[in-house]
Amino acid sequence: MNTPFHLAFPVKDIESTRSFFGDLLGCEIGRSTEKWIDFNFFGHQLSAHVKPEELAQAHANIVDGKNVPVRHFGAILEWNQWHTLADKLKTHGTEFVIEPYIRFEGQVGEQATMFFLDPSGNALEFKAFKDTSQIFAK
C-alpha cells in the first residue's frame, strides 16, 4: 500500500471548491473553516486554502502535440474508474484542457489521461494505466 500524500494549494473561494471536489469529484470533505477545507482525494489529503492572490498563471509545455499545463496535480485511478469519471465530467459539461484520450496505445505504459481546471484555475490530470506495473516504465 502506498503512503498517502498531503498537498496544500490556493483557491479563490470555499464554496466553489467544496462543490467541485466534494460534489463533482466525489471527494469526502474533512475539516474546514472559512479559509481552508480538507478533502479525501482518492486516499490522499488535499488542503485547499483561500488565497486567490497565489493562483498561478497557466503555463504549458508541448507533450505529444498537446499543451500540458506545467503546474498540475491529480490521481491515478483504476481503468474503469477513470472511464466512469471521464463520462461523468463530459455529462456535467466540463471544459477539458486536454480531452480524455489514450496515450501510448498498444505500447509500454499505455494510459488514459485527461486534464481540466477546478473553479480556481488549478489544473488537474487524471490517469489510468492498462497495466499498473507500468506506471514508471521507460
Automatic annotation (TrEMBL):
Superkingdom field: Bacteria
Residues of the VOC domain: 3-129
CDD domains named in the record: VOC_like (cd08357)
Pfam families noted in UniProt: Glyoxalase (PF00903)
Signal sequence residues: none
Name of the molecule in the record: Glyoxalase
